[in-house]
């Protein structure tokens, strides 16, 4: 994160006490240089600064104790285990410190030595402290010189080969010797405005804080810098996108008027606002880069249809790219119903289309005969050429890599771009992941959507859940049963067919089936020829069967909150009440917390906040599928206030000095491009 100072870039091998073998172990976990050690932040802290008299130590609790060595000795158990034991006296009482299978430490002990211990107090025949952290003090050694005891102690992420004591001692040496080599990347005035400590104080106190207040100030400084550099990258990306010359669309005309009249329902407030935003964007000669965010079933497709009509009316072609063939087919069906009666030519291009038909579609796309094409990854093949591409719509965009979206956009000359997601994104994450996009949010649901009641039941109530499904089927309804894996779904299908649902009509669908078989199964389910559809998450998006009122999710604890919410959105689409049953016996508190959260609300935005807090964000400006940011320090949920202040400062700085050419911004510029150099060519991708 700093300049290429020789001290900071020095290999870890040359730090005192490391050497080639330990350097190799450090390299394996990404610790290659002095700088890497300085920025390898603790995952938590233990306050070992308060000493407890031995007489006041509580069995079962962790304490920091100090005293003198009375006696010590080594003994072996019948099973061959060695126990080194030392009796420690502090004047109020005696405690026996025990270390198992560590006979070599005997050579470090002498009677009368001063020692500090930290660990969990237990009772065997005598009061004891097992496997404690310890520090033997020289006569003239100050407690503050210790890295392990008598202070607020850092706890680092570890591997089997690297123990806590070694990492802590290495970090202390590195901080003491090399933190003075750190250079200040944040401008002085910015630090003063935001009351941020300098980087040297921050690094010293993030590792070995002298007080809780010092730790808080250090944490705020390091997290602020992380968010600030990230937001500078986003601000530059947004600035660059705005200066590109794009296409200007006509927002008035016969085709758009005919489309408005053909809509068979009243648009919600959120839909009307989103359409107004899109009209303004598409009328402008600058490329539209807009995110349309809305919960499952909130009506994003009709808004996208409006944008597509605008591009066709203006003489351009439109494209929708979806992550699955099922979703692409669903979009094609919906758009064909709305647009083909208006004379708009809609076509589907997916890998499952026969080769002869596929070639014909590609020729018609190139000639301009097809106005709107809907497809999957098949759309980004080299031989798919557009005559005049005016609008790209990317649905469930987090399922695509950044590179795939970029390839699609480059098939036109700076076409407008609308990306959609049915996974509501918390504001903090939206500002980070989509800071370069303008955002429209549809919060309310269209009238007529039935409520969905969600239950969490444990394995022993499985038969009751099955009986409930049978009752719903008797009333003419249909159900989904979802398994997390293909093999589990296949086994479930065979078992249910022979046992619990032997008298019902069952179907099976998963990602391992070919397109033809998937279409056949879904067609049968929609027509009511299947009562219960056993599935994997292939039905997560794009399935619309109004008569399906029950969703039973097997091993629900294995799914993320947002994914559970997406699956639940497949029901509640008709005139009947709907029910989601989560079958799970979670082994962890986190699993129980997740299931409790999904049963308590159907608000996708509240669920997304909870999901983000549990799972955390991923990589940013990179090519990983979800495209989420790599936040190394801090939390975009817990540190929202720091994030928003950093964002404000970053956007103001880029507005004032877009090239970062001022002398005081030189190191910031270097850090910015160093951080994102591997994916710099993707910074223009919406």
How are the SSEs ordered, and which strands pair?
Blueprint lengths: L18 H10 L5 H5 L5 E4 L14 E15 L5 E8 L4 E7 L13 E10 L3 E4 L2 E5 L14 E4 L8 H15 L9 H6 L5 H9 L4 H32 L10 H9 L6 H15 L5 E6 L5 H14 L3 E5 L3 H15 L6 E4 L5 H13 L4 E4 L13 E7 L6 H8 L6 E6 L5 H7 L4 E5 L9 E6 L4 H13 L3 E5 L3 H13 L7 E4 L5 H12 L5 E4 L12 E6 L7 H8 L9 E6 L5 H12 L3 H12 L24 H17 L9 H11 L10
Parallel strand pairs: 4-6, 9-14, 9-15, 10-12, 10-13, 11-12, 13-14, 16-21, 17-19, 17-20, 18-19, 20-21
Antiparallel strand pairs: 1-8, 2-3, 2-5, 3-4, 5-6, 5-7
Helix pairs in contact: 5-6, 6-20, 6-21, 7-9, 8-9, 9-10, 18-19
- Largest beta-sheet details: 7 strands, parallel
Radius of gyration: 31 Å
Structural class: alpha/beta
Query: What is the assigned CATH homologous superfamily of the largest domain?
Result: P-loop containing nucleotide triphosphate hydrolases
User: What would the CATH topology of the largest domain be?
Assistant: Rossmann fold
**Helix tally?**
21
Q: Within the largest sheet, what's the order of strands?
A: 11-12-10-13-14-9-15
The averaged pLDDT comes out at 85
Number of domains: 4
CATH class categorisation of the largest domain: Alpha Beta
- CA-based shape: globular
Q: Give helix % range.
A: 25-40%
Distance between the termini: 26 Å
Runs in which pLDDT lies below 50 for 5 or more consecutive residues are 1-5, 618-628, 678-686
Architecture per CATH nomenclature, i.e. the level-2 architecture of the largest domain: 3-Layer(aba) Sandwich
Work out the strand percent: 15-25%
């Amino acid at each position: 994160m700093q300049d290429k100072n020789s001290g900071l870039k020095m290999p870890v091998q040359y730090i005192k006490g490391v050497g080639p073998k330990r350097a190799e172990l450090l390299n394996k976990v990404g610790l290659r240089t002095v700088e890497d050690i300085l920025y390898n932040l603790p995952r938590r802290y233990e306050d070992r600064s308060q000493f407890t008299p031995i007489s006041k130590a509580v069995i079962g609790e962790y304490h920091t104790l100090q005293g003198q060595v009375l006696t010590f000795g080594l003994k072996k158990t019948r099973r061959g285990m060695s126990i080194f034991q030392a009796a420690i006296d502090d004047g109020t009482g005696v405690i026996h410190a025990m270390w198992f299978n560590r006979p070599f430490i005997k050579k470090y002990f002498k009677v009368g030595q001063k020692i500090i211990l930290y660990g969990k107090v237990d009772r065997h025949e005598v009061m004891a402290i097992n496997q404690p952290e310890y520090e033997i003090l020289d006569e003239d050694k100050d407690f503050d010189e210790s890295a392990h005891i008598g202070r607020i102690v850092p706890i680092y992420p570890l591997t089997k080969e690297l123990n806590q004591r070694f990492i802590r001692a290495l970090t202390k040496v590195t901080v003491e010797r090399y933190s003075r080599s750190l250079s200040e990347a944040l401008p002085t005035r910015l630090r003063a405005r935001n009351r941020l400590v300098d980087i040297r104080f921050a690094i010293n106190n993030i590792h070995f804080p002298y007080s809780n207040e010092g730790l808080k100030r250090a944490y705020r400084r390091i997290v602020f810098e992380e968010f600030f550099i990230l937001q500078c990258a986003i601000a530059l990306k947004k600035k660059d996108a705005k200066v590109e010359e794009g296409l200007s669309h006509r927002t008035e005309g016969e085709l758009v008027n005919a489309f408005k009249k053909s809509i068979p329902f009243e648009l919600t407030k959120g839909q009307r606002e989103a359409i107004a935003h899109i009209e303004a964007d598409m009328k402008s000669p600058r490329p539209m880069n807009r995110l349309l965010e809305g919960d499952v079933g909130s009506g994003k497709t009709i808004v996208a249809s409006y944008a597509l009509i605008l591009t066709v009316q203006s003489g351009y072609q439109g494209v929708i790219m979806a992550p699955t063939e099922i979703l692409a087919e669903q979009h094609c069906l919906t758009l064909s119903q709305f647009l083909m009666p208006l004379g708009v030519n809609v076509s589907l291009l997916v890998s499952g289309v026969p080769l002869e038909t596929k070639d014909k579609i590609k020729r018609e796309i190139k000639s301009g005969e097809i106005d709107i094409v809907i497809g999957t990854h098949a759309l980004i093949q080299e031989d798919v050429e557009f005559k005049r591409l005016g609008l790209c719509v990317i649905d469930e965009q987090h399922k695509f890599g950044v590179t795939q979206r970029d390839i699609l956009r480059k098939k036109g000359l700076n076409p407008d771009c609308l990306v959609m997601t049915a996974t509501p994104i918390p504001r903090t994450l939206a500002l980070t992941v989509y800071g370069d996009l303008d955002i429209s949010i549809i919060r309310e649901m269209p009238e007529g959507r039935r409520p969905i009641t969600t239950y969490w039941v444990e394995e022993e109530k499985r038969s009751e859940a099955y009986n409930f499904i049978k009752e719903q089927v008797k009333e003419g309804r249909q159900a989904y049963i979802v398994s997390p894996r293909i093999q589990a779904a296949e086994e479930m299908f065979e078992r249910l067919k022979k046992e619990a649902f032997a008298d019902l009509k069952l179907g099976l669908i998963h990602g391992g089936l070919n397109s033809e078989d998937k279409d056949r199964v879904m067609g049968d389910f929609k027509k009511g020829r299947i009562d219960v559809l056993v599935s994997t998450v292939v039905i997560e998006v794009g399935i619309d069967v109004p008569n399906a009122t029950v969703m039973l999710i097997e091993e629900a604890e294995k799914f993320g909150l947002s994914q559970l919410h997406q699956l639940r959105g497949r029901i509640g689409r008709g005139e009947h009440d709907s029910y989601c049953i989560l079958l799970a016996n979670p082994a962890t508190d986190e699993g129980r917390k997740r299931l409790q959260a999904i049963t308590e609300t159907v608000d996708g935005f509240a669920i997304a906040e909870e999901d983000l807090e549990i799972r955390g964000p991923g990589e940013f400006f990179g090519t990983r599928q979800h495209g989420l940011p790599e936040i190394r320090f801090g939390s975009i949920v817990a540190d929202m206030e720091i994030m928003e202040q950093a964002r404000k400062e970053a956007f103001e700085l880029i507005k004032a000095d877009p090239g970062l050419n001022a002398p005081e911004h030189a190191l910031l510029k270097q850090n910015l491009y160093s951080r994102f150099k591997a994916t710099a060519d993707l910074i223009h991708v919406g």
